[in-house]
Amino acid sequence: MPDTQQADRQDLTVDVVVIGGGAVGENAAQYAIEGSDLTAVIVEGHLLGGECSYYACMPSKALLRPLDVAGTSADVDGVSPARLDHGGMLQRRDAFVSHYDDSSQVEWAESTGIQVLRGHAHLTGERTVRVDDAASRTITARHAVILATGSEPTVPAEFEGAHVWTSADATGVVEVPERLVIVGGGVVACEAATWLAGLGAHVTLLVRGSALLTGNEPFAGHSVLDGMKTHGVDVMFNTSVTACRRDNPEHTGLGKIHGGAVHLETTSGELDVDEVLAATGRAPRLDDLGLDAVGLTPENIIDRDLPSWLHAVGDASGDVPLTHWGKYRARVLGARIRAVATGDPEPFEVQSPPVPQVIFTEPQVAQVGLTQVAADEQGIDVVTAQVAYNAVAGSALLRNDVPGQAKIVVDRESRCLVGATFVGPEAGEQLHAATVAITGRIPVPVLRHAVPSYPTVSELWLRLLESLPEEMRRPRD
Ligand SMILES: Cc1cc2nc3c(=O)[nH]c(=O)nc-3n(C[C@H](O)[C@H](O)[C@H](O)COP(=O)(O)OP(=O)(O)OC[C@H]3O[C@@H](n4cnc5c(N)ncnc54)[C@H](O)[C@@H]3O)c2cc1C
Predict the structure, then answer these.
(1) pLDDT class for 37, splitting at 50, 70, 90?
(2) Which pLDDT tens digit goes with each residue over 290-348?
(3) Do the strands 138-147 and 12-19 form a parallel or antiparallel pair, or are they unpaired?
(4) Which of 125, 195, 341, 431 is most buried (most C-beta within 10 Å)?
(5) How confident is the model at residue 391, as a pLDDT?
């Protein structure tokens, strides 16, 4: 392929154009050109690295880890409890977001041969993208345009005008509100409640339904609720906000309190607080993308009803909104685009690999594949096994008091796992074995020969597999 062509007004023609340089867009561009002469441009309107690096995964986990360490130190005999340093926690967060400076990511992209352009990009026609920068460049893609524009928070109408916090303020927290309401009962709400309570806020969680973390095995929500109560978080279930008023709302900056006191009217009574975090979900960021210029709507993106040159990946595609999942899809997509463009054989793909997720609450929740309810809904005849997380010596060694459960969901017919959930200290590190077992379709009679080391938490696998009915564990005649 010829190198990137410079034309009038610095217009470009390249092989692949990626709109949005989050983790997903970066992976898509990298895999689309890797080991070939193909060329790629990423157009990024803000910071290369996207939400995950600066406003989501990285800062949240940087804030949560010290709490985990302090919690462990307070619950292991023979160790003096560690004292949290709130200022140090914010500094650690700042270091992990590189002080909101993306130069190292730009260096990485350029070192892999990806060209990075700054500006808002939108489609202007088939395979053409306009970048709203000083040069107002048009880029033409020979092979593919990839939309990797991520997602944005959805803030319900009741909060309009009150300038309430979104998750970016919570991860970028600078001023810790004394009294904070978090609206939501999902992953972002539960994780943010954990780190903001850890930083000293009095947190009240308002949950519309009657459980936390619905979509996981029910014991996950119960354990996380217990953990929150231990840390002084108040949780109000079956509660919706009906009105929100704020004194002197103002745009004070990321992570700062956005004005005066907030008055909330809810279906369970009235509340006065210093700040409100709306953790009420996210939606694909598909506005202002010029979809109409190519005869498309956001619904076409979500329904995967796209022309062959156009692709959507990551949060923008409406797929499961997780970094590792979006990056996986981006690697597959990028490799496929490269194979088609170069005439190389298409890469091998596994059908429907399972989605893993770790929720970094206290205790952690780690889940992959299907829950029992989801398997039932799909009509899969399953057998389950569930054991206490402290059922093995390796878990008992972690802490004095080990909460949580572990559960596997097994397809009765194939005797292969279709789902697994671990809830307990460091549960996230247990998950990949389950992901491998499901992806590799390893039947239980074979899995029983994978010997976990003593004394580690992974011996939970022994207890789980032993708890299955005998006929699931025996090889078929
Ligand atoms: C608080 C929080 C914590 C999270 N923690 C985790 C976690 O621990 N693990 C995990 O796996 N996931 C986590 N997630 C989810 C994860 O952040 C997202 O799934 C991931 O960031 C999606 O990556 P993406 O590249 O698709 O989108 P993004 O990271 O949003 O990147 C999209 C990029 O596109 C740019 N862009 C958008 N439109 C345009 C345009 N028209 N022109 C130019 N540029 C444009 C944006 O500026 C942005 O940089 C978390 C989410 C939140 C909110």
Answers:
(1) very high
(2) 999 999 999 999 999 999 999 999 999 999 999 999 999 999 999 999 999 999 998 88
(3) parallel
(4) 195
(5) 97
- pLDDT band, very low/low/confident/very high, at 402 (cuts 50, 70, 90): very high
231-288, pLDDT tens digit by residue? 999 999 999 999 999 999 998 999 999 999 999 999 999 999 999 999 999 999 999 9
Compute, in angstroms, the gap from residue 51 CA to the centroid of ligand 1: 4
Atom of ligand 1 nearest to the CA of 47: 49
How far does the centroid of ligand 1 lie from the alpha carbon of residue 425, in Å? 27
Q: Calculate how far, in angstroms, residue 40's C-alpha sits from the geometric centre of ligand 1.
A: 20
List domains and CATH numbers for the chain: 4-49+102-152+284-342 (3.50.50.60), 155-280 (3.50.50.60), 356-473 (3.30.390.30)
> Counting atoms of ligand 1 from 1, which one is nearest the CA of 360?
8
Taking CA atoms only, the protein residue closest to ligand 1 atom 19 is 322
How far apart are the CA of 154 and the centre of ligand 1, in A? 14
Q: Which of 53, 63, 66 is nearest to 22 (CA)?
A: 53
- Is-above-0.90 flag for pTM? yes
Ligand 1 binding site (Cβ under 6 Å of any ligand atom): 19-25, 43-47, 50-52, 56-57, 60-61, 120-122, 148-151, 167, 171, 188, 285, 289, 314-316, 321-324, 326
**Residue 201 in this model has a pLDDT that exceeds 70:** yes
